[in-house]
Amino acid sequence: MKKIMIYISTFLLTTGTLLCGCRTYINTPYSSAEYAMGTIVSNTIYADKNTGREISENITDELTNLENNYLSWRAGNSLISRINKTSENGSTVMPDDKASLFFRKVLELAEKSSGAFDPSIGKIIDLWGFYDNNPHLPEPALINELLPKCSYKYIKYTDSGASSSISLASDIKLDFGAVGKGIGCDSAYQILKTSGQDVCGAVISVGGSILVYGSKPDNSMWNIAVTNPRKDNDDDNNYLGILNIKDTPCFISTSGDYEKYFEKDGVRYHHIIDPKTGYPADSGLISVTIICNDGLVSDGLSTACFVLGIKDSLPLLKEYNAEAVFVSTDKKITITDGLKDIFTLKASGYITD
Ligand code: AMP
Ligand code: MG
Q1: Nearest ligand, CA of residue 207?
Q2: Omega of the bond prior to 249 within 30 degrees of 0, cis?
Q3: Which residues have CB less than 5 Å away from ligand 2 (the ion)?
Q4: Protein residue with its CA nearest to atom 23 in ligand 1
Q5: In terms of pTM, does the model score above 0.85?
Q6: Which of 44, 154, 257, 279 could lock onto 170 through a cystine, CB 3.0 to 4.6 A?
Q7: Whose CA is nearest to atom 19 of ligand 1?
Q8: Does residue 121's CB lie within 6 angstroms of at least one atom of ligand 1?
């Protein structure tokens, strides 16, 4: 019997096949890079090739559906576009279950972050021109005019079972850019879940948001890289560090001042706006990475915490049972307790607390 077991183990190792749960999997994942939601979507799926390809295609289709039918403010008939018209024409939008869930989570995060994350910020974002390939300093008068009108409190969401409704009580424009990719990861999770035993584990990366699902066939840790927010020259490491993940599913999102920005007179103006000032958040951070058990929340929290700064983020992280890696302007890395043992620094020039 022992001899047979040794033979089986040798066979599995030499053929690169390993056991995961009660199924057998090839230890080489199916990998693909697709384009959806305006970004690169990278999939690493431990499953047979056909299953991997099918799941990868299903994820791309669902992300395209989310973008076109729910989240885009450009697609004329998307949920967000239809809601954006409600303040002009006095209409109301009836959300389906999916949309209701987005709004419940988004409004809760806006409230809990005291408006540091505010999805009503679209018109102020437009002033900065990041989405028109024309980033520039807006006229202060325009910011001051819009600021009092932009608040999530003007998003009227009533949830009464079958007759939920959404409308805007002020001339605002919704922008779900801070949570869209996390929502994409939530959908990828639902797709992977329905595949049951056909998938051992997977990493799905939608722009700056990542889903880590299941386990690798050999049960080794998932290594998830965190982007180096200041890769100033070719010798610098691309990665700030590596998160060694064992507990899944988990969702990881990073917000940083290096993603979209321009410089004027030596000042960096980036795309994460403090809703209280209308200007790029100046909380002493250059990057925030969040890990928690929900994609939308991890994405929204990374934006909110970037605006709030370390001290004011900590109670919010507690409320969501989330963990974070903060990087300050002085290149100091602050890691919350739950991540201290699983984060390994890779880039030089940073100090950890
Ligand atoms: P992220 O990279 O996930 O932090 O999202 C940044 C994007 O979210 C920006 O490009 C804007 O579209 C939008 N955004 C910027 N600041 C905020 C904010 N304070 N609250 C909500 N959305 C924001
Ligand atoms: Mg975000």
Answers
A1: 1
A2: yes
A3: 178, 255, 299, 302-303
A4: 178
A5: yes
A6: 154
A7: 117
A8: yes
Q: Which two tokens stand for residue 7?
A: 């033979």
- 95-154, pLDDT tens digit by residue? 999 999 999 999 999 999 999 999 999 999 999 999 999 999 999 999 999 999 999 999
Amino acid identity of residue 236, one-letter, is D
Condensed to tens digits (0 to 9), the pLDDT of residues 261-285 reads: 999 999 999 999 999 999 999 999 9
Residue 256, phi then psi, degrees to nearest 5: -150, 160
Closest CA to 105 of 251, 282, 212: 251
- The type of residue at 8 is I
CA distance 169 to 182: 27
Question: Is residue 120 within 8 Å of 150, Cβ to Cβ?
Answer: yes
Q: Which atom of ligand 1 is nearest to the CA of 260?
A: 10
Q: 314 is written with which tokens?
A: 């900590």
343 Cα–ligand 2 center, Å: 21
Contact 35, 56 (CB under 8 A): no
**Both tokens assigned to 165:** 């409704």
